[in-house]
Amino acid sequence: MTTVTTEADEARTPVRAPAPALAARRRRAAAVLARLPGTVAVWLFTGFCLFAFAYLLISSLKSSRDVLEHPWSLPTALHFENWSTAWNDGGFGPAFANSALLVATASAVTVIVAGPAAYVLGRRPGRVSNGLSLYFVLGLGIPVQVMVLPLYALMNRLGLIDSLFGLFVLYVVTSLPFTVFLLTSFFASLPAELEEAAALDGVSAAMTFWRIMLPLARGGLATATLLNAMAIWNETLLALMFIQTNDKFTLPLALLNYFQQQQFTGADFGALFAGVSISILPMIGLYAWLGSRLTEGLTMGAGK
């Protein structure tokens, strides 16, 4: 007797996925569940940071009374004069110019000095280069607090205390170990065939570096410049130890000085929040502009 299978029977028959596909789906589901706590934690932290940033900007437009009596409400009136008060009375104007000058010069000079050193260490492996690489790595492990007293004695002998040029020299010196360590991996990853072809064409080693290798490592150079700029902009300890005159203050020192002034003259919380906003907004804008390049550069360096 012949059994006739109708279309309705075929529709009621469950279609089973192949075993490999089912196992792959289960692995993906397990991976998603494993990443779920970390994902939730990251989004919670991101939400907290966004809330803190919004609270900071809103409070900078409030009066001191509104900040104290209604800390979680929107401002009843926009007090833009808080920003001008912080800029003029708090000394944030000159401090902003000093910080911008130090960031622009120190980060650029650090990369210019570290670039050739990183190229030699990354492209010429050997006992000497390995030893020098280890020397720079050891420099990363020395806390700045340990070096403050020896640096102060040295800078005092050189007459560079309370000098923006002296602070510039300190920023370049303390930033070199990290910058050389970061750029070495980028130069080591470049193909050796380019150097060989340049040598066959009669190009010197110096011109090979400047005309061929350096443009290819521009991602690493941009990453190093951006990281150094952010670190120098927020640096406080060295500036606090080596700068003594108000007109040479950087932004972190101006913020500390303004906070100390308000302890005696009466706290103007709106202007204080405006001063904090002046200190952090440039770096947030810089990261928003070049953040993707920074992430790509760090990923490239880690993978190589």
Alpha carbon gap, first and last residue: 70 Å
DSSP summary: helix tally: 14
User: What is the helical fraction, as a range of percent?
Assistant: over 70%
β content, as a range? under 5%
Q: SS-based structural class?
A: mainly alpha
SSE order, as H and E?
HHHHHHHHHHHHHH
**Beta-strand segment tally:** 0
Q: How much is the average pLDDT?
A: 82
> Looking at the structure, what is the overall shape?
globular
Instruction: List low-pLDDT spans.
Output: none
Rounded to an integer in angstroms, the radius of gyration calculated over CA atoms is 28 Å
Largest sheet: none
Secondary-structure map:
Layout: H1 7-12, H2 19-59, H3 64-69, H4 81-88, H5 92-123, H6 127-140, H7 144-158, H8 164-189, H9 192-200, H10 205-216, H11 218-234, H12 237-242, H13 251-265, H14 269-303
Helix pairs in contact: 4-14, 5-8, 5-11, 5-13, 6-8, 8-11, 9-10, 11-14, 13-14
Would you give an account of this structure?
By secondary structure, the chain is mostly helical. Helix content is 80%, strand content 0%. The protein has 14 helices and no strands. Helix 5 packs antiparallel against helix 11 (218-234), helix 5 packs antiparallel against helix 13 (251-265) and helix 8 runs antiparallel to helix 11.
Considering the chains and any ligands shown, give keywords for the structure:
304 residues; mainly alpha
